[in-house]
Amino acid sequence: MSGVPDVSPADSWAALEADPNAVLVDVRTDAEWNFVGVPDLSSLGKQVVLIPWQVFPTMQVNGHFAEHLRKAGVTADSHVYYLCRSGARSLAAGQAAQAAGFPQAFNVADGFEGPVDHEGHRGRVAGWKANNLPWRQR
User: Fold this and answer.
1) What domains appear along the chain, each with residue ranges and CATH number?
2) Which end of the chain is more exposed for a tag (fewer CB within 10 A), N or C?
């Protein structure tokens, strides 16, 4: 596979549900997980893998990202769906993962919160939350 295709949140959920080897990796920061929430995969018998792509507060790229994927049990055979706030960091993480030997990378389009709406709020227009997919406060 070349490149990291965008997959809608609903299609990502369906893939996670259908494929026992599919994994959701949330690449946001600790602060985002704690204050905004995280996807809830418990009804699928899975847990989201939390590995920051960039480390808060400096936002430097996590130089151990691929190592953390391996430690979390992600393999080259895993279909891995990367999620961030709006889809940019997760795309970069998926590209880096492909380069590190995880070829089956998918970007969850619009991320967890999606773009801002006309009132400047996220989570209402597109993304995981706007698609009413399960999530919880951490």
Assistant:
1) 6-131 (3.40.250.10)
2) N
